[in-house]
Amino acid sequence: MTASTLASPRPSNTCARKEAGLGSAILWETRKLRAQLRSRALLVGTLLAPVAVVLVVGAQSRPPKDSLFGRFSTENGFAMSLLVLGFASQWILPLVTAIVAGDAFASEDQHGTWKTVLTRSVSRSRLFWAKVLVSVVFGLVALVVLAAATIGASLLIVGRQPLTGLSGQLIEPGAALGLVAASWATMAPPLIAFTCLALLFSVWSRNAAVGIAAPVVIGMVMQLVGSLGGIEAIRPYLLTTPFEAWHGLLAEPRFTGPILDGVLSSAVWSGASLVAAFLVLRHRDITGG
Amino acid sequence: MTLTTDADPAVDVVGVTKRYGPLVAVDDVSLRVAPGEVYGILGPNGAGKTTLLRMLFGLIRPDSGTIAVFGRSWSRDDVRTLDGVAGFIESPKFYPYLTGRQNLEGLRLLDGSGLPDRLEEVLDVVDLTGREDDKVGGYSYGMRQRLGVAASLLRSPRLLVLDEPANGLDPGGIRDMRALVKRLADGGLTVLLSSHHMDEVEEICDNVTIMNRGSVAFHGTIDDLRAMAPDPGHLLRTGDDRQAVAIGRARHPGVVVEPAPDGGLVATGSERDLSAYVADLVRAEVPLLAFTPTRTPLEALFFMLTDARPDDVRLRGKEAVR
């Protein structure tokens, strides 16, 4: 630091300055996410992994008959898409969204950068909501890429034959495409809820590994609990139940009650997680870094 | 929105206390920094300096007391309290996967609108031009420290808060950092600097608060501090320590000669008395091998103030301004 080019420091005009808005904070969080190898690799993975899965499963001489739509998966592209959907909803989707959301707050602790950003003109609440929005949008983008890659690969590799529904009805390819896409879309509410859960663990634990692993483990435990008998009273409140709500779309007659219940329970999980995360961050003393 | 006036102190800390369980990290601290002043907060590690600065930045909430910056306070103005304020706490931290430029551009986003674009200028000031497109993960400690100063200057601050800015720097880096702070202060910037190096504060600051174990041990100007400083001590190595002690005791009542803990002797007294004593040793043909100052007087005072119990320190030191 030997340069002598600095003229006298210019006093800031405190009246003219405006504190950073939510848009600026979102832009900043987006830039950081784009620069991270992990997030880019994750999106590439959601694009390529379904192709590999469809190729491998499609090449099997004996289809996975024990899984929903597994029986028809090697001869019907729509069934293949739904087979992958059932598999993805068990732990892939919670993991995909948690990889970014679970790191969103904890990475600031890991890099010691809370003090860097919170000593600028942006409030904790704006940074909080920026991280929430960017994480949710990233999760949804990953879901869209995964769904598009799965459906595209399934139809191209396996084919567009009419789909046999859960009630044995035959669904024409045009209608089947809409129902398969809608089935994937029903993943959005529980995915958002898992994103919020990962954000909570990220804020609370200050540790990215916990932020990423905890929602996945909780999802697995809920899957296990959901598979037990005699728990009908709590099943609607499990965060994994909405992952199965799409079954009603493939039945005859169709029923959408579980989807609406899933949206409601996902909203409650999301809201509770975000309120808890916000309070933890708001009242926290930043002593590290 | 609170309007600020020139009459507002740059920093006004009143009766601030912060506890962590049974530990009182900051205990009823008050200080006031006038605009344009270069103010030092001095104290050993764990004295509460960094906790106090974190509270100023709103990173930590005080249990009691108030902190106002240019008339604004966190309770009333939230993040607008930091208008015109910049700096860093301990070593500045950045995102290692972003370049220096990307880090600064991002932080500029978080500074809100209404600030001039000084990115190139501040990179030049801290001598990082040419390295701004390298990832921060590859920066040396000194480069990150300089990037921290650049990030602070980007806000066109009226108050620059620097916590141990020379920590971890090599001697050349320390010299450059001090020169930069001086240059900024000469330009009219208010500087609040914490350090545990007496010489740093003595070289740069006009006023100083010495903290010890969370409490204020001294408030005042550097000149006040100098006036309180004890006589300088010198390490004395001779070929005949017994005779050197005897001469001191017999002929130089103004000089205290004692065995040093690591060998040799320590002679303490005024400069005049010490000169006479050394001349006497030479006349008596006592072989004189070394005569070097142990600590500067201000260093000696610093250790005296911070090694003692806080109550004792208050009795000897100047009382707090409030």
TrEMBL record, chain A:
Annotated Pfam families: ABC2_membrane_4
UniProt KW Transport keyword: no
Record's signal peptide: none
Keyword Transmembrane: yes
Transmembrane segments: 41-59, 79-106, 127-157, 177-201, 208-231, 263-281
Domain of life: Bacteria
Swiss-Prot/TrEMBL keywords: Membrane, Transmembrane, Transmembrane helix
Protein's UniProt name: ABC transporter permease
Annotated organism of origin: Nocardioides baculatus
UniProtKB/TrEMBL annotation, chain B:
Any one GO molecular function term: ATP binding
Assigned keywords, A-Z: ATP-binding, Nucleotide-binding, Transport
Source species, domain of life: Bacteria
ABC transporter domain residues: 11-238
SUPFAM superfamilies cross-referenced by the UniProt entry: P-loop containing nucleoside triphosphate hydrolases
Membrane spanning residue stretches: none
Pfam annotation, one family: ABC_tran
Family: Belongs to the ABC transporter superfamily.
Protein name, per record: ABC transporter ATP-binding protein
Naturally occurring in which organism (per UniProt): Nocardioides baculatus
Source lineage: Bacteria, Bacillati, Actinomycetota, Actinomycetes, Propionibacteriales
